[in-house]
Specification:
single chain; alpha/beta; 9 helices; globular; disordered N terminus
Amino acid sequence: MHKVVDVELGADLLEANDRIARDNHKLMETNNVRSFDLIGSIGSGKTMLIETIVDILNKRGIKAGVICGDVAGDDDFKRVAGHDVDVKNLNTGKECHLDAHLVDHTLEKFNLEELDVMLIENVGNLVCPGDFWLGTDKRVAVVSVTEGDDMIRKHPIIFGLADIIVINKVDLAEVIEVDPQVLVSDAARIAPGKPVILTDAKRGAGVEELMAAMGI
């Protein structure tokens, strides 16, 4: 009986999350805001990618909003805030992922009518975020070569759910003796047909290609 109750509670939780996520999506869509959930482990380079993307959008006159999600602290928030962008910090406290309810309340702090793009940096994790759609148009899964060439095949669910896969920090591949093409091959097998973009976010390499895949 205990297991049945747990399953029912889990199903109810996910159903409630999806309902709020649909509302989030409708809210941003109504305001013509393109939205993206960036998922990846701690250190994969999500924050640096966001910083680089924001700088490019600013040069194009495209207004972005950013939500920096983390368990605690505001380190990423402070970094992104230095790039002339409307950014909000979102701490989960104990949870290893953002959920639609948390994002819903954070979206209330933005003037969406003034924005064109919303970038949401999820908590650094490649497991928990998979179950919780936030209401974004696309999920962007980020992996760094510094995490090893087996990360994608170790986490097939999250990369299978992603709309775009980013292999970041390729500038370090030779130094740490990791072949990015192994990650590319795993991505093609696990998520066939999905764009796989190689980037060096720190120097901007591949970011324009990523943005084209995102449609921004």
